[in-house]
Amino acid sequence: MKRACAVCVTARAKPCPQPASEELEECYRQFQIANYKCLTAAVCVMRPAAKFYQHLFKSEMWGVLFRAPRGALPLRMQWTQQKTVHTVADAPTASSASGAGTTRTRVFLRTLSENPLQFDLMDVDEEPPENSHEIELIDNELNSQPCADTVTALIQHACTLPHSDWVQDLAAGLRAEGAVPLAQMICNSREQLKPHAGALAAPLLELAASTPREDNGRKLLNSLHVDIVTRNPPPLERHRGLPLRAPQLDHRVPNQHLYR
């Protein structure tokens, strides 16, 4: 696995030959995506020292991995949004080993009410691989990026580490090319990122303020802006609790006015 990481780091530094056609540039991008997924899977399983994570959070990589969304991102009500389950690589933990459901478990529970014998006919290859777990992503254009599940899983994995040097690199990526899809990955991991809300607040809000679409002199928000501002993402969490004070009454109301 260490050898695979070394090969991935070396290969990602190779530039795309120039001049290049659109087809060649897309092939190069697909190669970089596959390379990044391989490197991320290996690092998440091995959980190496902090210095190795800088290879995964480099700002210049987001512009290679992600493509800017085409047109406006539609606004969707929360109750109409659908989710898709993705299987991602990660080191096994006590919580994931005991609490995560598997494909076979879900199929078995479903077939109890349909055809219990069908469970024995299930292909073994459909089982999730070892050192993996499942995450749910909302179905939208940004989460349909080829690396959306990988980057979301990486962020959630990094939140379990004892070091946090990667947070500053993640914040720097919000000011680089590919920042819009990266912001969606951060919103996907809002619960895990609560301890790091302070570092991500400014760049996320700057992104929300600088990317509205112009329409007849008006600035229109898209679904990502709403996700950042209204759905309790890291920047707007009250990560510093304030003590509650008893309300102060300026005057007393006579009892006879209360029971009329």
Q: Which outline best applies? A: globular
Counted by DSSP, the helix tally is 10
Average pLDDT metric: 77
Low-pLDDT regions: 93-104, 107-111, 232-260
Query: Biggest sheet: strands, sense, closure?
Result: 2 strands, antiparallel
The ordered H/E elements are HHHEHHEHHHHEEH
**Helix fraction bin:** 40-55%
**Which percent range describes the beta-strand content?**
5-15%
Question: What is the count of structural domains?
Answer: 2
Structural class: mainly alpha
Distance between the termini: 79 Å
DSSP strand count: 4
Strand arrangement, major sheet: 1-2
Rg over CA atoms: 23 Å
Question: Mind explaining what this structure looks like?
Answer:
- The chain is mainly alpha-helical and 260 residues long.
- It has two domains: 49-92 and 130-238, no CATH class; 93-129, no CATH class.
- It is 42% helix and 8% strand.
- It is built from ten helices and four strands.
- The chain has helices at 2-12, 22-46, 59-65, 94-99, 103-111, 148-158, 165-173, 179-188, 197-210, 223-230; strands at residues 83-89, 132-138, 213-215, 218-220.
- The strands form two sheets. A two-stranded antiparallel sheet has the order 1-2. A two-stranded antiparallel sheet has the order 3-4.
- β3 and β4 form a beta hairpin.
- The longest helix has 25 residues, at 22-46.
- It is globular.
- The protein starts with a helix and ends in a 30-residue tail after the last helix.
- The model is unreliable at 93-104, 107-111 and 232-260 (pLDDT under 50).
